[in-house]
Design brief:
The protein has 239 residues and is an alpha/beta fold. The protein has 9 helices and 7 strands. The longest helix is centred in the first third of the chain and has 14 residues. Keywords: ATP-binding, Biotin biosynthesis, Cytoplasm, Ligase, Magnesium, Metal-binding, Nucleotide-binding.
């Protein structure tokens, strides 16, 4: 895959750190990587955004941000309130295609969940993925409620004919509760797609060197890593 769209089942699920882990794993394999953030919200003009955080953690990646809005809202709402143009799906697709011409992997990180509105027409990240004919990786929360959110996201992807390689748990708790342990087993069934990794909580607080060294161990081979779902399950058994 030359373009991979990364979405979440909602906000604060570890999407940016997971994107950084995918980037770091690809870089460890000698692949060139670009990161495209179509709409950055809730960040001032001189503040580092999500793409900059991916670069800080992962290393030598090309960054591209199409629009930035100061309020932490959905892109359509944030653009309207800021009096600035919205980002259109065709703009996302065109930017990703240009980056793909010069990089082995382009990661397109969305804002919030799959169907968050990007403009006044109701266009979403799913529309950009369709234009790109790109697979969509879903980042999910570990705890209670994640099965429903993941199933809904998977259903929306399939209804639109989009490819869905699997799910990554974006923040696996150091002291996982019963729901998280059960969800680890049940997520593939809810998603109808494999579990492709689990990024430990607070991974983003690691030093960049430690993050880059550890990232392949959090992701399955399909994402350039060495993580194994069966081994992970055995290591995190619960009664």
């Amino acid at each position: 895959m030359s373009v991979l769209v990364v979405t979440g089942t909602g906000t604060e699920v570890g999407k940016t750190v997971t994107t950084a882990a995918v980037a770091a794993a690809a870089l460890s394999r000698g692949r060139s990587v670009a990161v495209l953030k179509p709409a950055q919200t809730g960040v001032g003009p001189d503040e580092p955004g999500d793409a900059a955080e991916v670069a800080r953690l992962a290393g030598d990646v090309t960054l591209r941000e199409l629009a930035r809005y100061p309020e932490p809202l959905a892109p359509d709402t944030a653009a309207r309130r800021a009096g600035r143009p919205a980002v259109r799906p065709h703009e996302i697709a065109e930017a990703a295609e240009k980056l793909a011409a010069e990089h082995d992997l382009v990661l397109v990180e969305g804002a919030g969940g799959l169907l968050v509105r990007f403009d006044e027409t109701g266009a979403t990240l799913a529309d950009a993925a369709r234009l790109l004919d790109a697979p969509v990786l879903v980042v999910a929360h570990a705890g209670l409620g994640t099965l429903n959110a993941t199933a809904l996201t998977a259903e929306a992807l399939r209804a639109r004919g989009l490819r869905f390689p699997g799910v990554v748990i974006g923040s696996w708790p150091a002291d996982a509760d019963l729901a998280s342990h059960c969800n680890r087993t049940d997520l593939p069934e809810a998603a109808g797609a494999p579990l492709l990794g689990a990024v430990p909580e607070r991974a983003g607080a690691l030093s960049p060197a430690d993050f880059r060294a550890a990232a392949p161990g959090w992701l399955a081979p399909r994402l350039d890593g060495v993580w194994d779902a069966e081994r992970f399950t055995k290591e995190h058994r619960t009664a």
